[in-house]
Design a protein that fits this description.
This protein has 105 residues and is mainly α. 68% of the residues lie in helices and 0% in strands. Helix 2 packs antiparallel against helix 3. The protein starts with a helix and ends in a 7-residue tail after the last helix. The relative contact order is 0.10. One of its GO terms (cellular component) is mitochondrion. InterPro entries: COX6B-like, CX6/COA6-like_sf, Cyt_c_oxidase_su6B.
């Protein structure tokens, strides 16, 4: 008898719990703001490879000119991190450290 009562309570509460969970998930989804690099007239095509590479170079030029602590370079970091695959960034970082990076820094 007690088991039947618990099952009945669960059957009544489960839809409410699912509804509450879905509502909270929906709220959370709309609170998260996804951003990427803004459109750049220098890169009008859908292939963003050059855009990624240019933003990476711009970030490191900014850091070289203004220093690591400068907040001005943060936007370039956000841009290249949103455009470039992580594997490319890792490879470019290794190349910069070894002095074999192909771009103008």
């Amino acid at each position: 008898m007690m088991l039947n009562r618990r099952i009945l309570i669960l059957e009544l509460l489960l839809p409410l719990l699912i509804q509450d969970f879905c509502f909270r998930l929906f709220e959370l989804y709309y609170q998260i703001e996804l951003k990427t690099a803004p459109a750049d007239f220098r890169f009008p095509t859908t292939n963003q490879t050059r855009h990624c590479f240019t933003r990476y170079i711009e970030f490191h030029r900014c850091v070289a000119a203004k220093g690591e602590e400068s907040g001005d370079c943060g936007k370039f970091a956000k841009y290249y991190r949103s455009l470039c695959p992580g594997e490319w960034v890792e490879k470019w970082n290794e190349q910069r450290e070894s002095g074999t990076f192909p771009g103008p820094l």
